[in-house]
Amino acid sequence: MSVSVAVAGATGRLGSLVCQVIEEHPDFELVARLTSASKPEEGAEARILVDVSHPEASPGIVARALDRGQRVIVGTSGWSADRLASLEQRLAGLPETGAIVVPNFSLGSVLGTVLARIAAPYFDAIEVVEAHHPAKVDSPSGTAVRTAELMAEAREGRAVDAPFAEQPARGELVAGIPVHSLRLAGVVAKQEVRFGGPGEVLTVTHDTHSNEAYRAGIRAALEAAEATRGLTVGLDAVLGIGATSPGVSGPSGAAPAAAAEDRA
User: Fold this and answer.
1) DSSP-derived secondary structure for 150-212
2) Same structural domain for residues 187 and 217?
3) Out of 25, 39, 54, 132, which one is annotated catalytic?
4) Could you say which DSSP state residue 82 is in?
5) Alpha carbon distance 127, 195 (integer Å)
6) Is residue 96 part of a domain?
7) Each residue's pLDDT tens digit, 89-138
8) What would the pLDDT profile of 203-259 be if each residue is shown by its tens digit?
9) Is 136 a catalytic residue?
């Protein structure tokens, strides 16, 4: 029997792709396409709710779904560490359900973040430059936030060398790491993490050329949702390939994880 799925934000760039992936998957059935005009009770019959809506609407959508006992996959930007901590606390009182928060559904992006975390302890200077299409409503991107937080964690409290960080042109400091955001026509998504050391620069770059890059990650999250309990953050945790951070449970009680999202 197919697992029923509702999608909040179904008419957006990512939402449309999520709906396609569900319809193409033999184990899942799309039962509701939800928009900002949908009533709160719409989609309540679904076993899984995928939220790819808007940063401001997302917490309410997720809270209602969890209270109904639905499994939740969140692909919406704006899930900061504080917001994740609140979600984890809510899930502690709902032991039979779970939520997967995915900052980026791209396998390449996830691996780029893992590589950046590995490199982070070895360089004093680190900066992140991310670029997205003009319609992306938030900055910095959730992927950049997650990358910065994981790199800062890997440094175990050692500060990054970020001179003149008080100047607006130096980028927003995320966990002490400057993050610069570009919003440009012709771009889907791109992130560069630059590490500076004496006589050398290491750059970890990931380019997304089309939304097709997200298909495999969406499928993986859907297939993991039924077994998930508590909070899982990141496609790396879903796939078992990434570094994780304390305090957040991985899938089915696996090792923990941390952070936000991308692609609104």
Assistant:
1) HHHHHTTTPPP--TTTTSGGG-EEETTEEEEEEE-TT-SEEEEEEEEETTEEEEEEEEE-SGG
2) no
3) 132
4) H
5) 7
6) yes
7) 999 999 999 999 998 999 999 999 999 999 999 999 999 999 999 988 88
8) 999 999 998 999 999 999 999 999 999 999 999 999 988 644 433 333 333 333 333
9) yes
**Claim to verify: residue 29 and residue 70 sit in the same structural domain:** yes
Note whether 99 and 115 are same-domain residues: no
Residue 209 appears among annotated catalytic residues: no
Predicted local confidence at residue 242, as pLDDT: 61
Q: Which of 195, 210, 225 corresponds to the end of one domain?
A: 210
Residue 77 located in a structural domain: yes
Omega cis (within 30) before 140: yes
Are residues 130 and 81 part of one domain? Answer: no
Range 131-158 burial, b when 16+ CB lie within 10 A, else e: bbbeebebbbbbbbbbbbbbbbbbbeee
The single residue of 54, 136, 190, 206 carrying the catalytic annotation is 136
Q: 30 and 161 in one domain?
A: no
